[in-house]
Amino acid sequence: MLAFTEAARAMILAYGEYVDNAALRVAIAGGSPFAPRYELTIIDESEREADDVVFDGGGFMVVVDPASAARLEGATIDYIEAPGGGGFEIRNPNFATPEALRPTGPLAERVKQVIEERINPGVASHGGSIELVAVEDGVAYITMHGGCQGCAMSKLTLRQGVERMIREAVPEIESVQDVTDHLSGANPYYRR
Questions:
Q1: Residues near 93 by beta carbon (within 8 Å), at least 6 away in sequence
Q2: What is the pTM of this model?
Q3: Rounded to whole angstroms, how far apart are CA atoms 132 and 166?
Q4: Interatomic CA distance for residues 189 and 147, integer angstroms
Q5: Rounded distance between C-alpha atoms, residue 54 and residue 185, angstroms
Q6: Nearest by Cα to 179 from 52, 56, 35, 58
Q7: What does R_g of the chain's alpha carbons equal in angstroms?
Q8: Contact 11, 77 (CB under 8 A)
Q9: Which terminus of the chain has fewer Cβ atoms in its 10 Å neighbourhood, N or C?
Q10: Domains in the chain, start-ordered, CATH in brackets?
């Protein structure tokens, strides 16, 4: 179901030392269709629910709620060391990456037109660009590239510029979500 690298297993076992009958609860708790938000929590094994999926993670019990279990099938949890700290990384084949999608249809074309004609000329002056990766249920999902990726002002640019312009021009769009990995890439301003 869910696999653990040796680095992740060692870190989970270290955290579990502080809880009697420790188990790891793994859940998918929201996020976007491209960037789910995962929750990893050390719990007492007695805190599991009757319908939870429970299995041995290699020296510790893993507890997963039924809704998350199907969406975690085939995923791998790793622990990555990085300058300034480390963290868990989940590689999950059940979610499409924004790069793999190409939005189509009249609504997506209207949003793309706003991005290309009104938004990208402005962000290009800062070495950046913005790309539409999907439109679903009134939400436009975008990624930022170049100078916009990792920029400390990216959230402000999104809310006060990009989202405002898209929503004014395409009223069917209720919100815009940035699904960019702002910590990686060839030219992010922010580095750990």
A1: 74, 75
A2: 0.60
A3: 11
A4: 7
A5: 36
A6: 35
A7: 20
A8: no
A9: C
A10: 2-91 (2.60.300.12), 98-178 (3.30.300.130)
Identify the H or E element spanning 64.
Answer: strand 61-64
Length of the chain: 192
Q: Say how far apart CA 120 and CA 162 lie, in whole Å.
A: 9
Distance CA 121, CA 148 (A): 13
Token pair 């979500």 in the structure block, residue? 177
Rounded Cα gap, residues 9 and 2, in angstroms: 12
Q: Which two tokens stand for residue 89?
A: 């990384």
78 with 88: CB under 8 angstroms?
yes
Supply the pLDDT for residue 143: 82
Q: Is the pLDDT of residue 183 over 50?
A: yes
Q: In what order do the strands lie in the sheet with 2-4?
A: 2-4, 75-82, 85-91
The pair of structure tokens assigned to 37 is: 């938000």
